[in-house]
Amino acid sequence: MTRTTRTTRRSRTVALTATAVVIALGATACGGSSGNSAGGSPSKGGTLTILDDADFNHIDPQRTYTTEGSSMDYELVRTLTGWDETGSQPKLVGDLATDTGTPSKGATVWTFHLRHGVKWQDGSEVTAQDVKYGVERAFSPDINGGPPYASQWLVGGDSYKGPYQGKQLSSIQTPDKYTIVFHLNQPVADFNETTAMTGWSGVPKAHDTGATYDTHVWSDGPYMIKSYTKNKEMVLVRNKNWSQSSDPIRQQNLNEIDAKFGQDQAAIDQQIKSDGGSAQTAITQTPIAGSDLTTMAGDPSLKSRYYKIPAPGINYLAINMNRVKDLKVRQAIEYAIDKTTVRGAFGGSAYGNYATTMLAPGIDGHKDFNLYSSNPAGDLTKAKALMKQAGNPKPTMSLAVENIPTHEHFADAVKTALAKIGITVNITPIDKNNYFSTVDNVKNQYDLTWGDWIADWPNASTVLPTLFDGRQIKKLPQSNNDLAYLNDPKVNAQIDKIGKMTDIKQRNVAYGELDEQILKDAAVVPLMYMNFSEVSGSKVGGVINDSIMAEPSLVHAYIKQ
C-alpha cells in the first residue's frame, strides 16, 4: 500500500474450533528508542509538532490505507478492537467494543458489544448504528482507497454500493444500540484483527460529508480537528467529551497536535536532529531520508530519540504483466536489478535486509527461497542471456516513483541497471501526496511501479491476496493494489482455496508456495525487508514503537516539562 496500514510483524498462531477461535499472539514488540518509552509519569499540556514531508493521502477512516494516515487517525477515532502496545507483546483488546468479539457458526458470525458512554465530540453517544454506517460508507464508489476486507467478507458485499442511496447492508445487524453483528461469507479466524483497522470505526450520519470527510472527521478519540488546510497544516485540539475511563489504549496528555506538511524530508531530519527551539517538541512520521539514514542511525547522541521499527513488509518493484508480456524479459529484469545500489538510495543496511520473497520474515506463511540472483548486485550474464532468448528486444519502459530525492536516487539505480541489458527507462515522478491514489488507478498504467507494503496483521492473508488477486483490477479500478496486473486464474483460485482453510499450518505452507509461484511469474522484484526509522526532539516523551503500524505511535505522547 504502499507505505500503508498494511501492518504487523510478529508471529501468530490461530486455532479454529467449531465454537470458538483462539488467537495467541506470540513474539515481542519491536525494539527502538530506550529513552522515550510509554513508561513514567507523563506531563500534561503543550503542543506536539509533527513534521511530515507530505500531507496524508487520507484521514477519512474508511479511506486511509497508509501507515501515517492510519496512525494519525488513532488520535481521532476509535475502532471496534485495537492494539495495546504498552507491554512487551502487542495485545489485541476491545476499543469501542468491550472485548475482542465473539465468533459463532464456525467464525462466520462475529458479535461485538460496545462500551456504554463513549461520546462524540458534540457529547452524543457512539452507537452500534454509527459503526454500521461507518463500515457501510466504505462501499460507496466515492469513498475509495481503503482496505478490501469488508467487501470481500461481508455477505452481500460484492454488490453493495454504500448507504448514500438509502440502502443498508443486511449482513451488518444492530439488534440494539450497543450490539453489532457481522455475517461473513466464509470463516475468518482473525476477523477481530481486521476490526482494529480504522475502517471499522463509527461515523455519525448527520456529520458525514462524503468525499470531503477527510477534512471534517468527527472525533470520538482524545483529539479533534480544529483546522485543516490540505498540504499545509492540520491542528488537533482536545476533545472535551472523550473519557480516559472508556479508552484502554489512548491518553490525552497534549493540548494540541500541530501537523505541518511540505518540507523536504532531509531538511526535517536536520531540523529535528539539531534539537533547537521548537524542534525539541517535534517528531516526524515519515522515514528518515536515505541520504541521512546511515549517519543518524549510528549517531550515539540520537539514541534516546531515534526509533528503528522493523516493518512486517516489503519494498518492491512491480512489473506490469499486461505491458511487459514476455516472461523472459521479466526474468531478465529480476536478474539485472542491482539491489545494493537500490538499497543505498534508501539509506543502506539500516533500511533493511535484501529481500527475495514477498512475504517478510515474521509473517505467518513466510518461506525462505530465492529464484534469482544469489548476489544482491545482480547477475548481468544471466540477464543478458534471457534477453537474447527473448530476441534481444530494446524496449522503453516507464517507471513510476514518488517525487522525493530518495526515490529519484532509486529510479536512477533502476535506470542504470536496466540500461545494461538494453532497456531504456523513462522515470515518471508522481506527487507523493497522490502517489498511491494515482498508481492504484487502472487508468494510470506504468511498465514498472515502485511499491511498498506492510501486512495489515501478521499473516500472509493480508499480503498476497491484496497484492495479487487479479479480480480486483476490474472490481476496484480506483484502488487496485495489484500493481503487477497479475490476473492468473490459477493464482486467484488458490487465493480462494487458502482463504477457506481452517488449519493454520496447512494455510501457512500454501501461502509460502503461492509466494513462490508469484515469483516464478516474475511479477515483482522483491527489494528489501524494511525498517522504518524516525526521530523526535528531546522533549517528546511517551512515544511507543508501534510494531503493528511500523510507526512511532503517539497515543501516549507528551511534552516533557
From TrEMBL:
UniProt domain Solute-binding protein family: residue ranges: 91-472
Keywords: Signal
Native organism taxonomy: Bacteria, Bacillati, Actinomycetota, Actinomycetes, Kitasatosporales
Source organism of the structure: Streptomyces tibetensis
Name this polypeptide is given: ABC transporter substrate-binding protein
Lyase found in the keyword field: no
SUPFAM superfamilies per UniProt: Periplasmic binding protein-like II (SSF53850)
Top-level lineage group: Bacteria
Gene3D superfamilies: Dipeptide-binding Protein, Domain 3, Periplasmic binding protein-like II
Range of residues in the leader sequence: 1-29
Pfam families, per the entry: SBP_bac_5
